[in-house]
Amino acid sequence: MTEHAPDVSRETPQLDGRARREAIATDRVSRETPGAEITNSDRDGDTPIAREAQAAVRVMNIAQEKWPRPVTTRVITVANQKGGVGKTTTTVNLAAALAARGLKVLVIDLDPQGNASTALGIAHPSGTPSIYDVLLSGSSLAEVSAEVDIAEEFWCVPATIDLAGADIELTAQVAREYRLQRAVEVRLGQEPELDYIFVDCPPSLGLLTLNALVAAREVLIPIQCEYYALEGLAQLLGTVELVRAHLNPALAVSTVLLTMYDSRTRLADQVADDVRAHFNELVIKAVIPRNVRVSEAPGFGQTVITYDPGSRGAVSYVNAARELAERGAAPSGGQDARSANSGPGQRESSAAEVK
Ligand SMILES: Nc1ncnc2c1ncn2[C@@H]1O[C@H](COP(=O)(O)OP(=O)(O)O)[C@@H](O)[C@H]1O
Ligand SMILES: [Mg+2]
């Protein structure tokens, strides 16, 4: 029996279409789980074998779980004007985890790079019907939505490189900050059953991100566990405040997610502590580790949830998605009511404390 390093997982069969959906629906973890005798330290979870075994058990248990549907559609903008902090990775993996459990999910790719479209397996060469047509030619979101083959009710509005000029093109348009909001309202009129809409933002605070903030009720901020992580956040929070004051009173920072956590560095712990001190209960308890499977997945046009469901990255994103779902659950009794009390609406003040 070979000991695997935690990041090195076994080959994942590349499945297509229906087969892939079925595999994900049952959370079939195809790779072998090391069956070595479990020692005390394994039980404590501090060896690679124990971690893998625990991950496999968790993945199997998660397959049985039923996640709550939100009362109304949650429109969540994933924003941070820094590049490379995990916005796109977070968007596609949370969305995939929720969709794989039967929730109805739409991802809107608002970054000209189109990385979210790529990770969801949607081709997006220039000229593909895309979010550009919605923002600048009045197409509807329904017209440009593509089906994501991870789940039955999972869609992506792709972005193409045409979007690169949109910030400037939008400047000349009427109601330029409200373009996405109006399109989202129309979509929700047609499909009120949608549970989640995620908007993946570009790394800037220009008109595209502004459109995303005006269209959403919630902002999710991914924060990379690295030096300078908090730098620039005041600017983002200031923008959120401005949008709330002038364009979209419903907006609030509802969620912060720690990404690319490297347990080998003390710095990562310091950053995590700082972020928790600032954002308190807005911070999702599940922390996303730096994990090579997460970074490999987009190269195969996949999320890590589908690429390697047993990897630490996938399990962490599933845990984060579960927390997100539970926080936004209907306030109908015991536990749900408790999570609703600390829900988005009630948590605005703690976000405002950060300057
Ligand atoms: N948890 C992680 N572990 C390893 N690599 C990651 C992780 N999260 C993101 N990455 C990689 O880091 C890079 C930046 O992530 P990305 O989600 O594209 O950031 P953003 O959208 O904020 O620019 C990508 O190459 C991505 O694959
Ligand atoms: Mg991105």
Please describe the topology of this protein.
Blueprint: H1 17-25, H2 40-43, H3 48-64, E1 74-78, H4 87-100, E2 105-109, H5 115-119, H6 131-137, H7 141-144, E3 146-147, E4 154-157, H8 166-171, H9 179-190, E5 196-200, H10 207-215, E6 218-224, H11 233-246, E7 252-259, H12 266-279, H13 292-296, H14 304-307, H15 312-327, H16 334-341, H17 348-352
The chain binds adenosine-5'-diphosphate and magnesium ion.
Magnesium ion is lined by residues 87-88, 111, 115.
Structural commentary:
The protein is an alpha/beta fold and 355 residues long. The chain has a single domain, classed as P-loop containing nucleotide triphosphate hydrolases (Rossmann fold, 3-Layer(aba) Sandwich), CATH 3.40.50.300. It has 17 helices and seven strands. It has a seven-stranded mixed sheet with strand order 3-4-2-5-1-6-7, with helices on both faces. It is globular.
